[in-house]
Write a structure and sequence with these properties.
The protein is an alpha+beta fold and about 350 residues long. The protein is built from eleven helices and twelve strands. Helix content is about 25%, strand content about 20%.
Length: about 350
């Protein structure tokens, strides 16, 4: 780990001013950044500690029915907030499926949105990685790549975005609130993360010095609370990143689907919103045939980036499973192992 200066500003204005200086990085829970610093992948010259900034650790229910979540709200606190989990159960399920209880107690929502990919070649300083060193190449293309992208990848990068919670948040049209040297602005979460293209080093749409200060879910997102699920397939039953994941949310009227929200995780460099698949379900009977058709549309443009063709079929199947379980209704009690397609409704509480 390199030597660095450590600053702890007392207000947002001071934090933005310090974070805009060259070589600076913002530090909140540190569950991703500190790990990257330890292995030498991230080498900031200045750490700007924002973990004690006032007002960013609140969940605010606004007059228009929307909810604003401060960037410093801890994952565990958000998942176990009864009002929030009741309104957005798929988001709570995704939060509880990530990492361990200890990490959820430290990790923040803003940090989760900004976490970087877990590609082994990105994390290995001796390997070629265009995200880490632009123009150096991508060793993952001809290396161990069975868990890499099947949508939106390029020859320059085949990494996937690792977040669980971003998947249902993208499906629910979440909006990110940003502060920076040029003032405040907002951006759809779906536009925050970039696909690699020719510039994989540009991982997101934030400008230098900008800081995520909150995230807002619109009032209409609560309409999906009764039929919403997040499922995650992983190589071990807990404490693992997704091989593939899916968020599915439905509203049904007179026996037919009125509206659908679908997103996939671990298939691309960003959470993948399946809008064509959503549109195909409107007015359809909520049956296996309709769900299979939607899943086929969601993966219509998928192609292997290496030894990972199996992920395409897995993604189709988990999306059908997520839709089927969403149609059955949101569980009254969170499964003992949230987000697992294999868990049963035991009534056990997943304790943070």
């Amino acid at each position: 780990m390199n030597r660095f200066d450590f600053l702890r500003p007392t207000g947002l204005t001071e934090a933005i001013a310090e974070g805009g200086k060259p070589g600076s990085a913002y530090l909140a829970g540190g569950t991703n950044l500190v790990d990257l610093m330890k292995i030498g992948v991230s080498r900031p010259e200045r750490l700007v500690d924002i973990s004690r900034l006032p007002g960013l650790d609140r969940i605010d229910w606004l007059e228009d029915g929307s909810v604003r979540i401060g960037a410093l709200v801890r994952n565990a606190d958000l998942a176990y907030d009864i009002r929030f989990a009741s309104a957005f159960p798929a988001v709570a399920e995704a939060l509880l499926s990530g990492a361990s209880a200890q990490l959820r107690n430290a990790a923040t929502l803003g940090g989760n949105l900004m976490q970087r990919n877990r590609c082994a070649y990105f994390q290995d300083g001796a390997s070629a990685c265009n995200r880490r060193v632009p123009g150096s190449g991508c060793d993952a293309l001809h290396g161990e790549n069975r868990l890499h992208a099947v949508l939106g990848w390029s020859e320059n990068c085949i990494a996937t975005h690792p977040s669980d919670v971003c998947v249902p948040l993208v499906a629910l049209d979440a909006v990110v609130e940003i502060e920076g040297p040029q003032g405040p602005r907002e951006i759809a979460l779906d536009a925050l993360h970039r696909l690699p293209g020719d510039t994989p080093e540009l991982e997101n749409a934030l400008l230098p010095g900008e800081l995520i200060v909150g995230l807002r879910l619109p009032a209409e997102a609560k309409a999906f609370a009764a039929k919403a699920r997040y499922l995650k397939l992983r190589e071990r039953m807990s404490y693992a990143f997704a091989v593939v994941s899916a968020a599915a949310m439905l509203t049904v009227e007179d026996g037919r689907i009125r509206e659908a929200r679908l997103a996939l995780g671990a298939v691309a460099a960003k959470p993948w919103r399946a809008r064509a698949a959503e549109a195909s379900l409107i007015g359809a009977l909520p049956d296996t045939e309709a769900f299979a058709g939607a899943a086929a549309l969601a993966l219509a443009e998928a192609k292997p980036s290496g030894a990972n063709e199996f992920k395409i079929e897995l993604a189709r199947r988990i999306l059908v499973r997520a839709l089927t379980l969403a149609m059955e209704g949101t569980p009254a009690v969170m499964p003992a192992l949230p987000a697992s397609p294999f868990s049963t409704h035991t009534g056990d509480r997943h304790v943070a």
